[in-house]
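In response to the reviewer comment on reproducibility (Comment 2.3), we provide here a single inverse folding case reported in full, input and output, so that an independent group could reproduce the run without further information from us. The structure tokens appear first.
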């Protein structure tokens, strides 16, 4: 019995599960963290490919069942707990594979990016609309804060769509598998990361306005600063590239 309050929608189709593992590019030398193993079908496939699998399951009932059913896998370690609180920083190099409940998708992504030091890649099954926002490029309707936050630290690519009918129970929307290759260094160099992200978030709170108007709450003379960064202040926030936001951030930092 799935628990609706935990956002449980499980995949059972072995062909789709194998495609996810294939997209994750798992080798016999890898440590893989699986968030939300559920009934353990993906866990079994991962255990056959990886050196070590750490499954983090918040549902105590499922965790106890998995301990019995996966007990013969010597390379599988099960943890009963909240994936948002797991100490990823303590792991050596690892990859993440997860079918994330929709309601915690963004917090999980940001938690993993936060603990990115030894993180090599993430292969996440997320809501299709979220996947489109993650991989969006400047100028599109899906491009925004999530796009920039992710692409600053990783190179995301949408691998394939999973129709809602593949899950049990059936969710209301389709899903997509996104592969995140972690960057060795951020996509752009900025003088102050906190300021950079503050500018991005402020700009997109009023994305329909011009850049000059959307950033007015930060600086009164913002128009001159935008021009100094070589950007037209009449442009909309959604048209700016990460590089342009970085330039603007550095102008504001030094002014």
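Designed residues, in position order:
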């Amino acid at each position: 019995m799935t628990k609706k309050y935990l956002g449980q929608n499980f995949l059972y189709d072995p062909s789709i599960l194998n495609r996810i593992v294939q997209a994750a590019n798992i080798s016999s030398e890898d440590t893989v963290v699986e968030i939300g193993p559920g009934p353990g079908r993906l866990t079994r496939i991962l255990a056959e490919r990886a050196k070590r699998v750490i499954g983090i399951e918040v549902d105590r009932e499922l965790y106890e069942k998995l301990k019995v059913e996966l007990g013969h896998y010597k390379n599988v370690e099960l943890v009963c707990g909240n994936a948002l609180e797991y100490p990823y920083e303590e792991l050596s190099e690892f990859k993440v594979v997860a079918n994330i409940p929709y309601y915690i998708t963004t917090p999980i992504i940001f938690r993993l990016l936060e603990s990115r030091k030894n993180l090599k890649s993430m292969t996440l099954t997320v809501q299709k609309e979220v996947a489109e926002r993650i991989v969006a490029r400047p100028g599109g309707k899906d491009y925004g804060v999530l796009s920039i936050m992710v692409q600053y630290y990783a190179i995301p690519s949408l691998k394939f769509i999973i129709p809602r009918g593949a899950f049990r129970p059936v969710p209301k929307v389709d899903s997509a598998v996104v592969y995140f290759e972690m960057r060795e260094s951020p996509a752009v160099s900025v003088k102050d990361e906190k300021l950079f992200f503050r500018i991005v978030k402020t700009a997109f709170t009023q994305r329909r306005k011009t850049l000059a108007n959307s950033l007015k709450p930060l600086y009164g003379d913002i128009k001159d600063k935008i021009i100094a960064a070589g950007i037209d202040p009449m442009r909309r926030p959604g048209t700016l590239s990460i590089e342009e936001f970085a330039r603007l951030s550095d102008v504001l930092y030094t002014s």
